[in-house]
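2024-03-11 09:14:02 DEBUG pipeline.ingest accepted 1 chain
2024-03-11 09:14:02 DEBUG pipeline.ingest length=119
2024-03-11 09:14:03 DEBUG pipeline.predict start
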Amino acid sequence: QVQLVESGGGLVQAGGSLRLSCAASGSIFRIRSMGWYRQAPGNERELVAAIVAAGNAEITNYADSVKGRFTISTHNTKNTLYLQMNSLKPEDTAVYYCRLVTTNTINYWGQGTQVTVSS
């Protein structure tokens, strides 16, 4: 079993920055991808950014709305996923979730962390 715990959310003014962390623990074997998703009230959960294993390389994907402002990264020795969010906008307000997918396509989700950007 894998546990994902997000942290780092909060209230910030537009133009500000936050750094989200996702600590993974448990029986972590072969990871296919890790990523950040968000869900605003009344909206479906959407991809923000993800890192996908591709052979010996990693591919990062970003939603168009966050390109150039958000950066996803990992600290493998600590099994931690980060999301650095700069130049935040009110429309970034949402609950942010961490997701891990194994090579045998098992999905794990964290409990979510609230990000609120005031105008």
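2024-03-11 09:14:41 DEBUG pipeline.report The mean pLDDT is 94.
2024-03-11 09:14:41 DEBUG pipeline.predict end
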